[in-house]
Write a structure and sequence with these properties.
single chain, alpha/beta, two-stranded antiparallel sheet, 10 strands, 16% strand
Length: 299
């Protein structure tokens, strides 16, 4: 079967990080250039696919916490990426059928797939826009129709801010969304870090960064303190800004099928947010996915 023709004006010869991420997750909404770039990253960073799955699991746990425990009913998902299993609206609506979700991405391919996915739910919308332009997103007719900014909103920035260059002032961008939302709103962030990578595997890290420099959105690794500063104006909820898989991990069912033996080593969180089979999270750099994650509540 041949590849689906891309929307007009989309250059599929240039690797796209959303479609590479889709490939890491085992999706089919990607093109040859995306697969080639993703395989090059996997060759130098064997934990890339495990990282993508763990990141999706974090998103599931964060949305479930916000909808079930924090009472959040409105979600603004920035840099949403291609639809896959357990999307924000699926998790939120499973907890509260009145939840509302706006997905934002700048990629026409992503938005086309997103609109096809959410054609039925009346309380889910898709906005094609650049998250670095908060005013355009916050004033967009779809955003204004679905979200009430006089009430708390969860601003989702999951695995996206490491694609924002420092010259674009990521902290300032986050602050604009913070200032537009009501008290009790939340910020959800996961972010790649060099705290492990650049020390344990400096050559491989530089090669992976070089591959991403050939995409439209190069990657920018940041240290824990830099990521922590993104939460200015928010109180971090327990357990704070921690390693990706340490943020409120679900306990495995000890009697469930395929339950791992503790002697087998660390386990990987499956996309549904539960622990799955035994694997090394990130081969070659300390058994950790090199990313931090946290959720903050606006003061």
């Amino acid at each position: 079967m041949g590849e689906v023709s891309p929307p007009s004006g989309v250059d599929v010869t240039v690797p796209n990080v959303a479609r590479m991420y889709d490939y890491y997750l085992g999706g089919k909404d990607n093109y040859a250039a995306d697969r080639e770039a993703a395989e090059k990253v996997i060759a130098v960073m064997p934990g890339s696919q495990a990282g993508a799955r763990a990141n999706r699991a974090f998103l599931v746990r964060a949305v479930r916490y916000l909808a079930a425990e924090a009472g959040i009913t409105q979600f603004l998902d920035l840099g949403a990426g291609l639809p896959t299993q357990n999307n924000v609206h699926e998790v939120a609506l499973s907890v509260n059928p009145d939840a509302r979700v706006v997905y934002v991405d700048w990629d026409p391919v992503v938005c086309a797939h997103g609109r096809a996915l959410v054609r039925t739910p009346h309380n889910v919308g898709v906005v094609e826009a650049d998250l670095r332009r908060p005013d355009a997103i916050l004033r967009h007719e779809t955003t204004r129709a679905l979200l009430d900014f006089d009430r708390p909103v969860a601003v989702m920035m999951v695995s996206i801010l490491h694609f924002v260059d420092g010259s674009d002032d990521p902290q300032g961008i986050v602050a604009q969304y913070r200032d537009a939302t009501a008290a009790g709103s939340h910020l959800v962030v996961s972010h790649l870090t060099g705290d492990l990578l650049e020390k344990a595997r400096p050559e491989e890290t530089e090669r992976a960064k070089e591959i991403y420099r050939r995409t439209a959105t190069p990657v920018h690794l940041r240290a824990h303190q830099q990521i922590h500063e993104l939460f200015k104006g928010y109180d971090l909820v327990d357990p704070g800004l921690v390693w990706l898989t340490d943020w409120r991990p679900d306990e495995p069912d000890p009697d469930g099928p395929g339950a791992p033996d503790a002697a087998d080593g660390p386990t990987l969180l499956r996309p549904d947010g539960r622990r799955g089979g035994t694997v090394e999270e990130a081969p070659g750099y300390g058994g950790r996915i090199p990313a931090y994650a946290g959720v903050g509540r606006k003061l």
